[in-house]
Amino acid sequence: MDIFSFEGYIFDLDGTLLDSMGLWDDIYVKVLGDFNIKAPSDYLFNVNHMSLCDGAAYTVERFRLEGVVKKEEIADMWTRLSKNQYESTVPLKNGAADFLHCLSGMGKTLGVATALSKELYMPCLERLGILRLFKATTSIDEVSRGKEFPDIYLRECEKIGAVPKNTVVFEDSLTGIKSASCGGFKTVGVYDASAEKQMAKIKNRADFYINTFTELLDEN
Fold this sequence. Notes:
This protein is α/β, with parallel strands linked by helices. The chain contains 10 helices and 6 strands; from the N terminus they run βαααααβαβαβαβαβα.
C-alpha cells in the first residue's frame, strides 16, 4: 500500500499520535485507589479502549460503586487529573510531527478522530505545534455511538471534505481498526504498548502496520 497516495488522513490521538496511554493507566489506578480498590490488569486494558463516558459507566458498574459515586463524577476526576499533563507534558510519538508536516507539505488533508474531549486535546495539539495542520477534528461526543462503530471516522471524513475510499485511518486499537475498515477506510495500525496483547490481531486486520512513524518517512 502506497501510504502517500491518499486524499485524506485521519488520526486517532491517544496511543496513535500521542504517547499518552501510560498516563491513563496511572490515573485509573489512582482514582480506584481513592475507593480502596486495586485496579485489575484486564480492567486497565478494557477501560483504555473506551470513551471517557463509557469507561466511567463501566467502572461504576464493574466495581459496584452505584450509590457511592456517579459515573459523571468519575469522568470529572479523570479529566481533572489528566488536564494539566495534556497541557504541559504529553509528547508526540517518535516521528509523528515529521510525518504530519511531510503530509501537509504534500498538500494532503489531515483530520483527527478521538475519544478525548476538546478540553484535553486542543491545548495539547496547540502546544505541540501541530493543531494548524488539521483541517478539522472530531470528538467521540459529537456522534451518537462509540468507536466500535465507524460514525466518528465518517463524520471526520465529511468535515475534511474527503471520501472513505480515498482516506486512511491511523489507529492503535483493534476496535478502531475494525470499525474504520467497516466504514470503507483503509487502515494503518500503530504500535502502542497498551495494545500489545492484540498486536497480532491488529496486524492481521489493518491494511498496513507500523511500529513508529519514522518507518513511513523512510519510504518517502
